[in-house]
Amino acid sequence: MELIKKKKILLLELLGFLILNVLTFCMAAKHIATVDWIVKETSYTRLCSTKKILTVNGLFPGPPMYMRRGDRLNINVRNKGKYNVTIHWHGVKQLRNPWSDGPNYVTQCPIKPGANFTYEIVLSNEEGTLWWHAHSDWSRATVHGALIVLPQLGKSYPFAKPHKEFPIVLASWFKGDVMEIIETALESGAEPNKSDAFTINGQPGDLYNCSKQGTFKLVVDYGKTYLLRIINSIMNEEMRLRALATKDYPVDVPQHVDTRMYITISVNTLPCDDNSCDGPNGSRVSASLNNISFVEPSIDVLQAYYKRIKHVYESDFPNEPPYYFNFTGDNLPDTLLTPDQGTKAKVLDYNSTVEIVFQGTNVQNAAENHPMHLHGYSFYLVGYGFGNFNKKTDRKKFNLVDPPEVNTIGVPTNGWAAIRFRADNPGVWFMHCHLERHSSWGMDTVLIVKNGRTRLSSMLPPPRQLNPC
């Protein structure tokens, strides 16, 4: 009897253990939902004509995403369009998980027509108004949408809770096929056609031909507060504000710097045989960072780095330009027009502190505001100004107390912007101008942050399914 009693107790303990594990598995699985997205062509009528555009689930703008701080979500993207595609989660750090970051030939091979890929979105301390968009050629023009990260359950906004919220997505509309526009421009060497209209939540403004009157209306009640969540797909320049600097939203700007980089931003040209291209003086329009025009590799940099595949990229992106001159001067000499070309990356030690000063230039008299975006990170905007950066006087004016933490910053026309961050997210991360034509011309580079000494400070292994290039 005593033996039978002991066996029953053992069975009950085993059953309890199994039930506990099943419940734990179910609870874990419950928090990682999977959503299916279909990328396909859909007919839309704008500016008096109808055309097919690439969409997610037939929507333009695409489906809005609502998540909470710290959430995880899997999105299975199936490509039923006719072009390669990838998706980027703009402003999501994707801690240790560059495999789901999105830029084609940087962190993944594109999703080819008929194929699929499952992105794992891992939120950490992100909160607020972000967005998602295609990161393959110019498909971002129609494949984009809002990504709203709400506070954790039980937490509130860092301000009085609004009565209502309105997502506002600003974008562009091209009458032609956007992919054909950029492909033709890259083939000929000329500047691509500009958009035919700006849109608000997918509709051109009231003054465009055949536009709907009252494109955007807000119905509000007197005395109540409203939160306008503005997603700017046109260029996504961040406002320059001071940080909240509170207990729940602390500021940890690096006071000491391990690596300093001074990066010039230029629009250039490349020579063509017999001046046969359609750019300035028969050349091909190009762009560069530190006089290096980024060349898209044949396989993604992340895969080459992880598998140690040689001859895909070089890890010698320079900390400063090859020569100094009056970067913002007028009528600069033609000798400054031609950049070098290459697939170059900057390698950083894990947990090192980094300062980057972006310096706008007036090469080719093409100075403008450049929205510079860094994947995998938010950074502190510690200073900005006009003219050439002066390391002796301008650095003394840096805000190292409560600078804003952003993921994109508009470098002023003929000016500079300085950022600082801690390289605590191992992986391969794209850094580029967010104006599509500039990125297409080579105004890009890659930061590679090495693993730390522990598993939790090292990059995650690749997912089971990696799309072939």
Automatic annotation (TrEMBL):
<keyword id="KW-0964">Secreted</keyword>
<feature type="domain" description="Plastocyanin-like">
    <location>
        <begin position="165"/>
        <end position="240"/>
    </location>
</feature>
<feature type="domain" description="Plastocyanin-like">
    <location>
        <begin position="317"/>
        <end position="452"/>
    </location>
</feature>
<dbReference type="InterPro" id="IPR034289">
    <property type="entry name" value="CuRO_3_LCC"/>
</dbReference>
<keyword id="KW-0560">Oxidoreductase</keyword>
<dbReference type="InterPro" id="IPR011707">
    <property type="entry name" value="Cu-oxidase-like_N"/>
</dbReference>
<protein>
    <recommendedName>
        <fullName>Laccase</fullName>
    </recommendedName>
</protein>
<keyword id="KW-0479">Metal-binding</keyword>
<dbReference type="InterPro" id="IPR008972">
    <property type="entry name" value="Cupredoxin"/>
</dbReference>
<keyword id="KW-0325">Glycoprotein</keyword>
<dbReference type="InterPro" id="IPR002355">
    <property type="entry name" value="Cu_oxidase_Cu_BS"/>
</dbReference>
<dbReference type="Pfam" id="PF00394">
    <property type="entry name" value="Cu-oxidase"/>
</dbReference>
<keyword id="KW-0186">Copper</keyword>
<dbReference type="InterPro" id="IPR001117">
    <property type="entry name" value="Cu-oxidase_2nd"/>
</dbReference>
<dbReference type="InterPro" id="IPR034288">
    <property type="entry name" value="CuRO_1_LCC"/>
</dbReference>
<dbReference type="Pfam" id="PF07731">
    <property type="entry name" value="Cu-oxidase_2"/>
</dbReference>
<comment type="similarity">
    <text>Belongs to the multicopper oxidase family.</text>
</comment>
<dbReference type="InterPro" id="IPR045087">
    <property type="entry name" value="Cu-oxidase_fam"/>
</dbReference>
<feature type="domain" description="Plastocyanin-like">
    <location>
        <begin position="39"/>
        <end position="151"/>
    </location>
</feature>
<dbReference type="InterPro" id="IPR011706">
    <property type="entry name" value="Cu-oxidase_C"/>
</dbReference>
<keyword id="KW-0677">Repeat</keyword>
<dbReference type="Pfam" id="PF07732">
    <property type="entry name" value="Cu-oxidase_3"/>
</dbReference>
